[in-house]
Amino acid sequence: MEQFFLKLSIMLVPALMAITCHEVSHGFVADKFGDNTARYMGRLTLNPLKHLDIFGTLMIFIVGIGWAKPVPVNFNNLRHPKRDMIWVAAAGPITNFILAAVSAMALRGIAAVSVNGAAVPLFQVFVEPIALMLAFSVYINLLLAIFNLIPVPPLDGGRVAVGLLPYRQSVAYSRIEPFGMIIIIVLVFFTDIFSYVISPILSMGVHFLAGPQSSLVFSVTRLMMR
């Protein structure tokens, strides 16, 4: 039980922020391009309770990746549906990349300040939990961004692919969306896509963003996934 509450205290805030900002960014960009569905339904808010999917949140603690309730977007309301779809879909992963970069910079800053404040116990008491949360934030945001860029609808990468393909090919490709979740489940649980594709890209991203603090990010992640 103590281990559970430790994981909860470190993972909850970064995870909720990652999935909430991801979904809000979709609705925000859609709103700017002409579709106010998310605004009308009260989903353009950073209140995580408006976006929370209980099962998706629990999966973050169980397998390390989860989801929120998708923000509703009516692509027919967009001023240029095919083109604007690309930006609406890409907004989520881009937001997660930005959050990962900001978290990594803050983590580097804390590490630099901690060297000077190492002799002050009270300083360490406050800084250590924040550093652990930032380390997990780097991991979860990069993972969400990379995973969502898999080019299979309804994932964001699939929607981007539909928007980029020529009209006839995009129509044909969009028809796999009803079967998209089955394809994703097969890829995740019955192939080595995590070992050979996602994990190497994730590792490179962590090393690039966190630099000397990469070891902390990986250590926190291993601790949280036990």
From TrEMBL:
Gene Ontology CC annotations of this record: plasma membrane
Entry's Gene Ontology molecular function annotations: metal ion binding; metallopeptidase activity
A Pfam match: Peptidase_M50
Predominant location category: membrane
Transmembrane portions of the chain: 54-73, 85-110, 130-150, 178-198
Domain of life: Bacteria
Coiled-coil regions listed: none
Cofactor (UniProt): Zn(2+)
Keywords on record: Cell membrane, Hydrolase, Membrane, Metal-binding, Metalloprotease, Protease, Transmembrane, Transmembrane helix, Zinc
Keyword Nucleotide-binding: no
Compartment annotation: Cell membrane
Protein name: Peptidase M50
UniProt organism field: Geotalea uraniireducens (strain Rf4)
Lineage: Bacteria, Pseudomonadati, Thermodesulfobacteriota, Desulfuromonadia, Geobacterales
